């Protein structure tokens, strides 16, 4: 059974309907109506990493880009480094994985999904990997390449 930490709604599969990623909410990395931040559970500002696995990722145009397969933690710094995004393929076959810098994602609490400011064609050309050949994510050259692609400031700065 999945733990719903977003709030009281159990509808986890609604699609993004478009709109700006900017919000007057508490933080740029979390958007939603004020009611979305009042609930009986711990979220949306503090969540189990495992509860985010399977969450859909959309872009501002409303295109589904994929879903979250995992969260990569920087254990030494105690921070989330990347979300692993699965994109492409069919029924898990031929999927390509992408390490998306955590700060490049915005949690859309109202729609229970993440937003990434990338179009599908650009994402197809992103540095990625397959499930059996993961990169050395602690390598600074690799990390800088990823952050440059997503126009994201490295979290360690």
TrEMBL record:
<feature type="compositionally biased region" description="Polar residues">
    <location>
        <begin position="20"/>
        <end position="31"/>
    </location>
</feature>
<dbReference type="InterPro" id="IPR011033">
    <property type="entry name" value="PRC_barrel-like_sf"/>
</dbReference>
<feature type="domain" description="PRC-barrel">
    <location>
        <begin position="45"/>
        <end position="122"/>
    </location>
</feature>
<dbReference type="Pfam" id="PF05239">
    <property type="entry name" value="PRC"/>
</dbReference>
<dbReference type="InterPro" id="IPR027275">
    <property type="entry name" value="PRC-brl_dom"/>
</dbReference>
<feature type="region of interest" description="Disordered">
    <location>
        <begin position="1"/>
        <end position="44"/>
    </location>
</feature>
<protein>
    <submittedName>
        <fullName>PRC-barrel domain protein</fullName>
    </submittedName>
</protein>
<feature type="compositionally biased region" description="Polar residues">
    <location>
        <begin position="1"/>
        <end position="12"/>
    </location>
</feature>
